[in-house]
Amino acid sequence: MTLHVINPNSNETVTAGIDAAMDPLRGTGVEIACHTLSAGPRGIESQRNADSVILPLCARIAELEESASAFVIACFSDPGLFSARETTAKPVLGIMESGVLTALTLGHRYGIIAILPNSVQRHIRTLRGLGLTERLAGDRPLGLRVEELSNPDRTAARMAEVGRTLRDQDGADVLVMGCAGMARYREMLQTETGLPVVEPCQAAAGLAISRIKQGI
Amino acid sequence: MTLHVINPNSNETVTAGIDAAMDPLRGTGVEIACHTLSAGPRGIESQRNADSVILPLCARIAELEESASAFVIACFSDPGLFSARETTAKPVLGIMESGVLTALTLGHRYGIIAILPNSVQRHIRTLRGLGLTERLAGDRPLGLRVEELSNPDRTAARMAEVGRTLRDQDGADVLVMGCAGMARYREMLQTETGLPVVEPCQAAAGLAISRIKQGI
Amino acid sequence: MTLHVINPNSNETVTAGIDAAMDPLRGTGVEIACHTLSAGPRGIESQRNADSVILPLCARIAELEESASAFVIACFSDPGLFSARETTAKPVLGIMESGVLTALTLGHRYGIIAILPNSVQRHIRTLRGLGLTERLAGDRPLGLRVEELSNPDRTAARMAEVGRTLRDQDGADVLVMGCAGMARYREMLQTETGLPVVEPCQAAAGLAISRIKQGI
Amino acid sequence: MTLHVINPNSNETVTAGIDAAMDPLRGTGVEIACHTLSAGPRGIESQRNADSVILPLCARIAELEESASAFVIACFSDPGLFSARETTAKPVLGIMESGVLTALTLGHRYGIIAILPNSVQRHIRTLRGLGLTERLAGDRPLGLRVEELSNPDRTAARMAEVGRTLRDQDGADVLVMGCAGMARYREMLQTETGLPVVEPCQAAAGLAISRIKQGI
Amino acid sequence: MTLHVINPNSNETVTAGIDAAMDPLRGTGVEIACHTLSAGPRGIESQRNADSVILPLCARIAELEESASAFVIACFSDPGLFSARETTAKPVLGIMESGVLTALTLGHRYGIIAILPNSVQRHIRTLRGLGLTERLAGDRPLGLRVEELSNPDRTAARMAEVGRTLRDQDGADVLVMGCAGMARYREMLQTETGLPVVEPCQAAAGLAISRIKQGI
Amino acid sequence: MTLHVINPNSNETVTAGIDAAMDPLRGTGVEIACHTLSAGPRGIESQRNADSVILPLCARIAELEESASAFVIACFSDPGLFSARETTAKPVLGIMESGVLTALTLGHRYGIIAILPNSVQRHIRTLRGLGLTERLAGDRPLGLRVEELSNPDRTAARMAEVGRTLRDQDGADVLVMGCAGMARYREMLQTETGLPVVEPCQAAAGLAISRIKQGI
Fold it and tell me: What number is the ipTM of this complex?
C-alpha cells in the first residue's frame, strides 16, 4: 500500500522536486510514490488553472485507489480537495491545509510565501473557508512566474526578502512555502530569516503517514 | 446586450423554473436570457458535481461574452464563481452570494433551506470563504433529492417545516432558498413562516442589473 | 410609486449631486425622487449630527410612505436605518450597507474613503454591528471638511491619494466612496487607482430597485 | 461633583428603582444622583424609542456637565452612548456595555435576560459593534411589556425560567439583567439559577466610580 | 533518539493505556517512550491541577532533553505547552492541539468528548487562545470522574451517548476524545456514531514524528 | 475586610510602585493592601516565569482568604487567574483583563505597551482566550528588560515613542500599560500621546471595588 503524492501540474521537474523532498519522510513503513498529472497545465497560476485539474485529479485518484493508503494533492491551492474526499474513503491531504496546520504547532503567527500576486486572494479565500486565518500574519508573493523559478539565485534572494518582510512587518514567527517543489530553498530560508520554515509537501506527507498509522 | 443566466445543470425543467422566476426582473431595460448547460450533470448534488461544471461553464461564458452585459451562475453552490470572473470582465454574480447579500438587507439573521444534507457543509465552507457567516442563523436541508422535488405538495410541506425550524430554533428572521428553480414556493413559504424569503436567482439578477446600470 | 432617496442633511447641493448620480439607475420602471431633509444639519460630521436626523428622517418617511415603493437613506453613516425600518414596511436601504454589499461582489477586500478622521470609527462600529468587517481592507479619511469639498481639484487629488494608499498599503481591490454626493469623482478615481469604485447612493438605489422588483 | 445617572425614559418608578439599586455603590466618596428624562417615552421598547431620547439626553448631559464627575445612561440599549461622549469630556458609561464588561470577569459565557423579543436583535447589533459577542451565550426575552413588570410574582417566575434556559440550553455561567430598574429581582435570580447576576446600573456606576478615581 | 510521551498525572494505569495506544505509531524509525510524572496529581480535574504540573513537567523535559527527538504532553488540557517550548528547542506537541489539528483534516466540524463538566470551559479558553474554535461544533462532558472511568461498560455507553449528541445536536462530523488513555474505546465509538474518532495521544505522536522527520 | 493586591514577582520596588498607584483608589470604604510574593522570580519575563508563580500565588490567596474582600493579581500576564478563581470564591481580578475591559470604555481600539518582545504573543494568546481581541489595535514592546526600567528618562522616552507608534501606525485611541508598577509614567504618556492611558493595577482595583460593592 502506497501514499500517492500527485502533482496536479504537468511539469515533471516540479514532480522531481517533490519526490526529492519526500526522502526524509521515507523509511516509516509507508511507501511514497510521486505522480505527475499529465492532463494538468504547465503551472497552476490562476483559479481557472486550479479548477481545471479537479476532474483529471479525481480520475487519477480513482485509478490509484486500490493501491493507496492515502493521497496528497501537491499544489498549494489544494485544488479539488473536497471532490477528492468524495472520490475515495482513503485519507486525502492538501498541502496548503497541511502546511498551515503544521505551522500552527511551530509558532504563534504564520506567514505564507506565495509565487504570484493573484495567488494571495485565492489562498486567503480557501483558508477562510477552512477557518484557519485567525493566526495568519500575512501572505506575500514573490512576484515571479513559475517558469522564472528556474533561476535559483534570483528565487532564493527574493524568497529571503519576502520572508524577512513577513517577519518584520507582519509579525510572522513561522513561514510556510506557498508552492510545491521548492524544498531545496528551505534551509536557506531558515538561515536567512531565523524562522522555522514548513515545506508543505513534507507536512502533508507527514500528516498522511500519521493518519495511515492511526487508521483514520 | 443581455444578462445571461446559466443553469449549470442539464435539467431543462430547472431552467424553465428559473426563466419564470426572471419575469418580475424584466422590463428594466436589461434583456435576460436563461441557458441550460447541456454538459452539466442532471443535478448538482455533491462537491464533485459542482466542480465538474466549471470548465464547460467558463466555455459557455466565453461563447456568450460578446453579447453579454453580465452573467448569473444559477446554482446555489456558486460553482466556478472565481474562475468565471477570470474568464470575463463583465459582472458575474453567484446566486448564493447574491441571495445572502440581499437577505442581509432584510433581516438580522438569515436561514438557508438546502436540498440535501451534504450541501450544508459545502455552503458553509463557501460562505466562510466569502466572510458572510457572522449573521448566519442556520442552514438546514430538506433531505429530498433534486428528483423528488417533482412532488410539489411534499416539497412545500417540508419546506415550510424547515423554514419554521430555522425561525424557531435557529433564530432566523429572513430565509434564503438554497436552490435554483424553486421560486414557485416562495409565496407559500412567506405565508407559512411569516418571514421574508429570498429567491436567489432573482436576487442575483437584481444585483446584476444594479451593476450593469452603475457601469461597474 | 416612487423610490424616495432622502439626503438627511440640509445641503441642497449634495441632494443635487445625488440626483445626478441617480440618472443611470433611471429607466427601470421605478421612479426615483431625491429629497433634502430641511431639518437636518448642514453636514453630518459627528455621531451627534447623525443621531440628530433620525426623528425628522422617520417623520419624512412617514409622510412619503403612501407614494413609496422603497426608501434610500443617503448618508454614509446609515443614520436611523433600523428606526426607519420600524417606521415603514417598505424596503429601506442605507448607502453604507448597500455600498459595502455591492463591493463584496466586485473584489476580495474593500477600502472605504471617508471624509473626516472621526468618521472612521463610526463606520467601523456600524459595519461590525452589521457583521461586514471580515473583508474590510481599511477605512481612511480625506481629512477635508464637507465644505472643503467644494474645491474639486483638491478633492480629486486627495481622493486619488487615499485610494492608492488603500490599494497599496491595505490591500483593497475595490473602493467604496464614504459619502453621498461625490459621484462625479468616480470615473477619475477608477482611472487613478485602476480599481472598481462603488458610488454608494447608486448601489443603494440598485438594491432598492432589485427588492422592489422581487416584491420583498 | 456628582455621578449623574440618567434614566432616559420618563417613568419615575423606574428611576426610583435605579436609585435604590445605587445604595450599595454609595459611600465611596462619589455622590450619585439619579434623574428622569422627562422628555423620554414611558418605556424604551423599540429602536425608535431608543433613538428618540438621544437629543434630550445630550441636552440634559450638557446642563449637568458642570456639576458632573461622570454620567451613566441607564437604559440597556445604551442609547446615545457615542453622541453623549461627543457632548462631554467626562466619563460616560452605558449600562449594557458595563454590565457585559463586568460579567466577563465573573464567568466564561454570559447570558442576557431581555424584556421584549425585539430587544434581542438591538442588543446583539450593539454588542457586535462593541466587539463583545465572542463570549455571549444567549440573549432571551421575558416576553413581558415594561408595564407588565408591575406584577412582581409573574416577573420573578418568568425571569427565573429564562435564566435557567440561558444556563441549561445556552451554557451561560453568568447572567446580565437586560433592563434598568430590576435590581430587586437580583437576589431571587441568583438563588433560582445558582449563577452570579449582574445588575447593569450597578455595574455602570461601579465602572464610573473606578474611572473617576483613576482620573481617566 | 526518542519521542518522549509524558503523562502529567501520576496514574500509571493511564500511562499504560497511552503506551498501548502508541503501538500503531511505532515502527516508523522513531522510538517512543511513555513516562509518568510521579509529582503529578492522581488526575487532572481542574485548572489548578493542570497548572500544578507545569514546573515538574518542565523539569522532566529538561532531564530527558539529551535523549529526546521530541516531546508529547499527554493531558488534554495541554498544561505547560508554552513553558515546555521555552524549556527545550525540540518539538513539543500538546494532545489537545494535535487532536484538533488532525480532526480538521477529517471533517468539517469537530466535537470534543470531555470527562468533567468543568473541563469544557478550560478547553474552549485554550482553543480560543489557539485560534481553533471556528469549526468547533461542541464540547460536552461525560460527567464521570477519572476514577469512575474504571467501569468500562458504563464509560463506553456514556461515551457513545455523548458522541451521538455531538453529532445530532451540534453537527459534529468528527470526534476528538478529550482525555488521554481512552484509546481502547475508539473503535466502539466509531461504530456507535459512524464518525471518525481522533485519539489525541496518537494524533500528537503522529505530528511529532512528522516534525522529527521534517527536521523542524 | 481588605482588597489584597498581590505582586507575583519578588521585587519590592515594584510592589512599592503598585502601592503608590493605589492611592487614588483609596477612601472608598475598601481597604487596599499590597503584597510581594517572596517565592516569585525577580521579574516575570517568560511564560515559564508566569507559570512558576501560580502555586505560591494560590497558596498566598488561601492564607489571605479570611481577611479578603477581593484579590488583584498584579502581573500583566494574569498568571494563575483561573486557578486563583478555583481557590477562593471572593472576586479575583487580573490586571491585563481589567486594563483591557476598562480601556474598552475609553476608546475604540486599544494599544498595549509591553516590556519585552516575547511578552506580546503571551498577551495576545491570553486575550484571544478571553475573547477580547476584536478591538485590539496593537501590542508593541519597549524592548527593555525589567531591570532596565530603573532609568526613568530612557523608559519614559521609549514609552512615549511606542505609544505614538500604536496611535499612528496601529490606530489606537486608548493605551494600556502592559506592566505593573509603571503608574508614575502615566501622566507623561498621556501628555506625549494625547490619548487616555490605563494603568492596569488601578483598573483592576477599580473593578474589584465595584464587585465588592455590588456583592458579586
Answer: 0.97
